[in-house]
Amino acid sequence: MLQDDVRTRCPRNAILWLVLGLLPALHAQDPIDEGEALITQEGVMEHLNFLASDELKGRVTGSDEIARAGDRIIDVMKKHGLKPAGEEKDYPQKFPAINRVCRNICGLVPGTDPALKKEIVVVGAHYDHVGIGAFGSRRGEQGRGQIHNGADDNASGTSALLELIEAVAKKPTKRSVLFLAFSGEELGLVGSKAWCKKPTQPVNQLTCMLNLDMIGRSRDQYLFVGGLNTGSTFEAITRAENKPFQFKLELHGGGRGPSDHDSFYALGIPSMFFFTAEHEDYHTPDDDADRINAVDLTRIARLGYRLVRRLGSEARPKFAEDARQAMPRTSERGVEGPFWHLGARIAAEGDGAVITSLEATGEGSKVGLQAGDKFVQLDGKPAGDVGSVHEFFDLKRPATPLQLKVQRGRKVLTFKLTTRKA
After folding, report:
1. Is residue 102 within 8 Å of residue 183, measured between CB atoms?
2. CATH 2.30.42.10-classified regions of the chain
3. How far is the C-alpha of 84 from the C-alpha of 100, rounded, in Å?
């Protein structure tokens, strides 16, 4: 068991040798198939430049701008012939969040094998971000009103997802492949939890899940892959398929984490997580397209494609529990303040915020906080909505004393604790 281990795009009717000739730098020493050849740096960046543009104003969940982003994802699915896999024989799956109707986007590439096509490989990414900093900005009050484009978080993963849609549609696998673009991740994995609560495909047909989140800022060919203990074949195929790319892999077996794969792990689905670590521009107005490592983002998308091909055709991975939180050692902290400081996941409930789960060894569990507790006061001030709670913890330094009041049933309880040490 694994422990912690260190467009101009060529036209679609172009001759394949010409396509390959334009891409020798990616991994010229290793042959690529016609599907992988369609995953290009130009294609990835065309999607990313749109998603991370100022006109989409940070793609906050429930906004008109994220609706435009969702429409683009639907257009790509339609263009490449994906079968609608949402509700009512359409691509969207609707769910409520922040008093609005929000959308996951769902499309299926049917498998080619008469028997195995009933089994499904899931590829997911979240396409929402934090908008203009009303919540979730690491700049606090200074970030309010500024567009947080989220080029890395998570236009990068969504752009890779869109390229994979094209590649897998061109070269289907024996199993079906379900592409899911989630909204509401920044609110506490709300979109993926909504899908898992009311899945649009039978859960018992899901063989595994690959989650692409923040994969656009690789440094020195670094890539974090989590969840490898949760699927019996994950580590072997990851190591094998990385050989032509030579990423410096940081591998982790844990299946939990602050992104949408966590929702699938909770269902007992083998779940893998691609991530290139946190950075100084995370959840700030500086996470822009010009800071993306486009070459390695393209290569990571190609590695993802290779894994999907194997997962779609080879032995079905067997699930095993590993409830550790999988995050890179290189990250300054987890990607949510409440989780980093308390070991607690939170989500919106009405106009407030409620704890949805706690890490057993986290500071919150140590003092007796429980899932279902709703924040009432934070250091003597009204807790406010989920964005305000995120901001409160995002701005806290490690090892800082604080006092929390939460509502548990009819009781209001007070807890004193110290935030997690660095």
Report:
1. yes
2. 337-418
3. 23
pLDDT tens per residue, range 316-343: 999 999 888 888 865 533 345 787 789 8
* Number of alpha carbons in the 13 Å side-chain half-sphere of residue 313: 12
| CATH 3.40.630.10 domain position(s) in the chain | 16-311
Fold of the domain built from segment(s) 16-311: Aminopeptidase (3.40.630)
Q: What pTM was estimated for this model as a whole?
A: 0.76
Cβ contacts of 359 within 8 Å, gap of 6 or more: 256, 325, 339, 343, 344, 365
Question: Within 13 Å, how many C-alpha atoms sit on residue 346's CB side?
Answer: 33
> What is the structure's pLDDT at 335?
43
Q: What is the pLDDT of residues 372-392, one digit of tens each?
A: 999 999 999 999 988 788 778
Q: What is the Cα–Cα distance from 387 to 328, expressed in whole angstroms?
A: 25
Mean pLDDT to the nearest integer, 357-371 = 89
* CATH of 337-418 given 3.40.50.300, 2.30.42.10, 3.30.1360.10, 2.60.40.420: 2.30.42.10
pLDDT at 39 over 70: yes
pLDDT at position 397 is 77
Task: Determine contact, residues 172/109, Cβ cutoff 8 Å.
Answer: yes
* CA dist., res. 216 & res. 163, Å (int): 14
Mean pLDDT rounded to a whole number for the chain: 90
Q: 102-151: per-residue pLDDT in tens?
A: 999 999 999 999 999 999 999 999 999 999 998 888 888 888 999 999 99
pLDDT of residue 24 exceeding 70, the answer is no
Task: Give me the mean pLDDT over the 12-31 stretch.
Answer: 47
- The answer to whether the CB of 181 falls within 8 A of the CB of 125 is yes
